[in-house]
Write the structure tokens for this entry.
Amino acid sequence: MLPKMRTFDPEKYIVQTKLVLTGVSSKCTRTLIPCWYKFSKLKAGELAGTLHLQRVRCGKKNCRCASTRQEDAHKAWYRLWRDEHGNQHKTYVKRSELGAVRQAIERRQARVRREQAERRAHMGARITTPGTAQDLESLLGSAGQEGLGDLLNWSSAEPDLTESHRCSLAGSLTHRQRSWLEWYLVLLNATEAARRAGYSQKSHGYLRQIGHRNLNHATLGILIMDSLKADMMTVKARLAVQGRSDMANFLKVTPEGVRIDVAKGYRQGHGLQVKELIIIEKRGTLGQTTTTSLELHDPFRALQRLWRSGYNMNSHS
């Protein structure tokens, strides 16, 4: 469901549903992106334009306005306004109707200023809420990934520790350290994990220091080893799967063309090859669009690390 808002107007927002899937976590969010909208130029009881006072001469020979002095000319009020095509018009306003016309013009000007301020505030605000199961199902269906939800666990991987011990360890970590831990378990690269976790990117050397420090952190070390089941062969086997990363495992040929089918890759056992999957669906008054972005692990980097460790891929084919 959309967030409860007092003045929610579907024509003023684009509803964006986004799924970001990594190896250890997934996040589905719904965001209301404000879009430019037009408000009514004229409502009941309002008049467009401005009032102008002009000096006119009636043309009678015996009238005082026949003199050459400007102050002897008669006073006349006119309303200048433009129609929807931009053409300017000029209308005479009777003296008896002057007060009502001025109030109608001021009423419209005050409303336009108020609605312009509301629109400026509207354009500067985004509303993001966690996605529901219905949002996720609709998103996967529009992206052609109907079977993906049944194949994945939509929660972060939990280490094999007792609940109390796990909570005590996780509670001692900062938010950025927990983010670094999640990225490290996906990438197995401390420097890249520090960059994606949001550490300062003032230099590559600084990120390397952060990664080295976290690797030697006592609590992080326990969680890393427990997440990997304290078996380095698990890490090497995972790198072996990443070394066979091939985009063809996640593509499907249809009469309309070639499209990404992540569910196909997971059914065939290639899920560990996925580094990041992003599905974005946008719905607005102009229609609906869905984009899918899939990034696999670099096979050459994984094979290089396996070669340095002396791992035999043929024995695990």
Notes: Strands lie at 13-21, 26-34, 50-56, 74-82, 88-93, 127-130, 251-254, 257-260, 274-284, 287-296. The chain has a mean pLDDT of 77. Residues 132-154+242-306 form one domain.
